[in-house]
Amino acid sequence: MYSPGAWRHISEHLADILARQCTELGDAAGALRHATTLLGCIDSSPAAAQAGALVRWQEAVTAAGASGVSASSLAPPRARVVC
Q1: Domain range holding 26?
Q2: What whole-number distance in Å separates Cα of residue 26 and Cα of residue 83?
Q3: In-domain check, residue 61
Q4: How many whole angstroms separate alpha carbon 9 and alpha carbon 28?
Q5: CA distances in angstroms from 37 to 1, 18, 83, listed in the order given
């Protein structure tokens, strides 16, 4: 139904929206989980999108720490390098 590229864009959008909504609702663990998922979706995105996702992840880690949520199990995914 969707090409892999289109599905990747949809996954990125959903992770971004869910991270934002969790943040707005005060769900630090959910925000962190979705922001971490977002980092895994952006390896082929433009630099501005990658920077925005990293900022969202850093904000989620900060909020999680302030709420007492451990971020140790949700390390950011490793970047894939294409040569």
Answers
A1: 4-67
A2: 40
A3: yes
A4: 24
A5: 23, 10, 24
Residues in the chain: 83
pTM over 0.70: yes
Query: Which tokens belong to 71?
Result: 């971020």
pLDDT digits (tens, 9 = 90+) for 6-31: 777 888 889 999 999 998 998 998 99
> What 3 state SS string does 5-45 have?
HHHHHHHHHHHHHHHHHHHHHCCHHHHHHHHHHHHHHCCCC
12-40 burial: b if 16+ Cβ within 10 Å, else e: beebbebbeebbeeebbbbbbbbbbbbbb
**pLDDT tens-digit series, residues 32-48:** 989 988 888 887 778 88
Please answer whether residues 19 and 56 qualify as being in contact, where contact means their C-beta atoms are separated by less than 8 angstroms.
yes
Q: In this structure, is residue 77 part of a structural domain?
A: no
Instruction: Measure the CA–CA gap between 76 and 63, rounded to whole angstroms.
Output: 16
